[in-house]
Amino acid sequence: MSSDDTRPDKPDRFSALSQTHGDQDLADLARSNGLSEAAADAVAAIDAVLNKVRRSIQRRDFGRLILARIDPSLEVSHLDVIIAIAHNPAVGDTPQDEVTVGNIAERLGIDPSRASRISADIVERGYALRVASQLDARRICLRLTARGERLVTAVRQTKWRIFAESLAQWDEQELVTFARLLERFAGWATDEASMRRSADAVKQMMDEAEPV
């Protein structure tokens, strides 16, 4: 933290976190595992903040707001497909711009018939077009039109701008420390062994609670 963090004219950005009150049961569990009172409250606050972010992402607030301004006829699912077409990595001998309905369905984890319907919608609305594969003329691929590319660029740049503006008031040390701690924190979400142990623990608790 920089030495001027205690200046009266500089907002205490960490006081905002202390105003977030998390689940008391979680705080109690953290204390029972040896954390101090303040540390346990911080754990519960982190969980509460993450839940707020998760709910916003699940509601797709940003995407819905953007589409309401640009094209109210589009749904968030349309935007997902448009972005899936735009960010298609080359695989093996397949050119990067060759995206099929099957690719979209796999990438978004949706049924191929749904991917086909949404793809037809964005083609009809002028955001994509159907083209023949360069490798197999019998195979139909999807490619963004200039309108679709403008939409993707606008969405990406707007997201980056919002992100940058939200961190603009942080000083260098805060940003460096936050990036390091965030990466460290995210380890639990990518540690498959730990996740398997957690899943086993859930099963054990359910089994123990099962009436005999």
UniProtKB/TrEMBL annotation:
InterPro entries: HTH_MarR-typ, MarR/SlyA-like, WH-like_DNA-bd_sf, WH_DNA-bd_sf
Region named Disordered: 1-22
Pfam families: MarR_2
Positions of the HTH marR-type domain: 43-187
PROSITE patterns: HTH_MARR_2
SUPFAM superfamilies: Winged helix' DNA-binding domain
Biased composition (Basic and acidic residues): 1-13
Gene3D superfamilies given in the database record: Winged helix-like DNA-binding domain superfamily/Winged helix DNA-binding domain
Protein name: Winged helix-turn-helix transcriptional regulator
Gene source species: Mesorhizobium japonicum R7A
